[in-house]
Amino acid sequence: xxxxxxxxxxxxxxxxxxxxxxxxxxxxxxxxxxxxxxxxxxxxxxxxxxxxxxxxxxxxxxxxxxxxxxxxxxxxxxxxxxxxxxxxxxxxxxxxxxxxxxxxxxxxxxxxxxxxxxxxxxxxxxxxxxxxxxxx
Length: 136
Description:
The chain is mainly α. The chain is 65% helix and 10% strand.
């Protein structure tokens, strides 16, 4: 419901204070290039979902944000954020662990490459007797 940019924009306008339907149509219709019936449909969805309230003032309809509905949305967002933060923290830990393992492996590889070549030859595997050929 709040994923629609038109509805989010309408709520931004209504958060500034009560606004006549015609004023919402003028702003949102101009910004998004949509018709009066389309804006009215968005206002109806916001009203039916509890995010906006409407009151009659003569022939005008004045819309405003229903602050109680925003509390519910805010709580839902906090719950989702908390769940994602836990997952992202765990991912960060795993990435750091992998980086540390690669760094340690890289340091070990660098230490081996700096070793004295004579030392490496002396530590090479001895040949097995079956591998050596005897001259007769």
